[in-house]
Amino acid sequence: MQGSIPAGRRAALARRSRVLALCTLLLAACATGRGESTSSAGPIACEILILGGSFGGSAAALGAHGRDVWVVEDSDWIGGQVTSQGVSALDEHAHIETFGGTLRYEQFRSTVRALSGGRSNPGAGWVSRLCFLPRAGLAALEQMLAGGPRVLRGAQAVEAVVEHARIVSVTVRDRAGLELEFHPRFVLEATDAGDFLPLCGAPFRQGAEARAETGEPHAAELADPRRQQSFTWCFAVEFRPGEDHTIERPPGYERFRDTQPYSLSLPYPDGSRRRYGFFEKGEGFGPFWTYRRIAREPEIALINWPGNDYRGTPLLDADHDEARRLSLGFLHWLQTECPRDDGGSGYPELMLRPDVMGTSDGLALRPYVREGRRLRALGTVVEQDLTPDTARARPMADAVGLGWYPIDVHTCAGDVEERGGLAIPTRPFQIPLAAMLAEAPENLIAAGKCFGATHVTNGAYRLHPIEWNIGESAGQLASFCLAHGVSPRDVLEQTGWRRAFQVALLEAGIPLYWFIDLRREDPLWAAAQALAVWGELQADPRDLRLGAQPEQREAWLARYQALCDELPGRARD
Q1: Among 6, 63, 126, 406, which residue is least crowded by beta carbons within 10 Å?
Q2: What is the pTM of this model?
Q3: Containing H/E element for 50?
Q4: Is residue 300 part of a domain?
Q5: What is the dihedral of CA 562, 500, 513, 527, to 10 degrees?
Q6: Can you give 126-153 as a three-state secondary structure string?
Q7: Does residue 238 sit within a domain?
Q8: Is residue 333, in this structure, part of any structural domain at all?
């Protein structure tokens, strides 16, 4: 009995138990990375600490390849929106197969295809050129990260110590309450909701800014921190003809059905409504069933639809139980009340697939996060940057990547109307380095969805290839700074270092300027992009193509080489 053990002995046993548990935790983390172990449960010094194994966090770890990297992820799955959040139908742009994504992003897509039987689009969902099972995305990331960073799962940051505008230590805690202290040289914020920003005292925004602050035509009249995009508990279902898999009606079903409302008809920005058929096209772009179908044999679809977008309260203080019931209620409606293409109501043949999501209830491990805290960065992307009357968005001299997606702001928390968001076309845009950095802490880098966008432009920067590019460039930046003994601020503000970093990004396969007719094997691929970013090459403002003539090519290649030879930190022959 406990009473028969002296108090001092009990305390010693408790300490020993904690140390053993910490060592077990560390060994488990090492087993997912380079296989190294540590003999101490004391503070861990590392070069780069990535908080959040999200899609951007995973890309950041790849971008920091070769460095001493730890990744801390609160889920059991790395990958964020593409795995634990269930959104494994990639939201991309029209040129993604040939231009506009990083080399490592292309490798991720190729690995997913290889792991999915070699099919170009495993699920043949019509929303994307690549729809697949979340576990295929997880396996691809695990394969790409093998032998690299150490990944600590089921843990999150709970405390940070900042001295002289630098993060000097970060304490993380696992689900059992065990704590580890890290002493990193750089911290990359890659959580989906920007969870580390308030812990380290970094300035941040949440919700909508006022139009007077940003000058954005579609910004809110008044700032509202609670006006955040809805989030979604996704789930996967298989269609089993002739079977009945109707789930129990969740509490609050009637209210959800009538106020959401549950429907296959969607409102459009022009004020019209379009009815989607279940298996038939209807008035929409395609059938509901194949919208985000992620497997064909058997047929499995991901359900991420306005019907299960939760707008009751903002993500950061939401009632997640209610949000989960909302999603289960939508499934029950699909099984019982959804209008059938052949007449009648309901598709009881829909079977929830918990194994696809890695959970017991069939919902994803984590909600799909569209908007959380955003860094108050040294530079903020606003709507006007993305919507000029030219082929490309506003040029950015500090470009560290590319993206393209419409400003897609879903219905927000508190909206009474079903669709209170935005749908605004954009021009192909760049990712600015200034939006990844704040005044302080100076060794903090945004590596995902906390990127310095507004409530409006976050709707364009939050998507898969863009989050990946932000993360990968963040990892590259930390590695570059460590290699050359410079700070991220030096890279941003000193032209020589900024250009040297941009060359390093191009050499790593990260595009910086929109020339859709360039292929990676073309010697001009890096040169033309760099010269355009640096103002040495004037691109046609009406055309995304370069269209170079032979005599131009030779001159541009020579000019690029000459400028590279002048950059700091570049090896000389």
Answers
A1: 6
A2: 0.94
A3: strand 44-51
A4: yes
A5: 30
A6: CCCCCECCHHHHHHHHHHHHCCCCEEEE
A7: yes
A8: yes
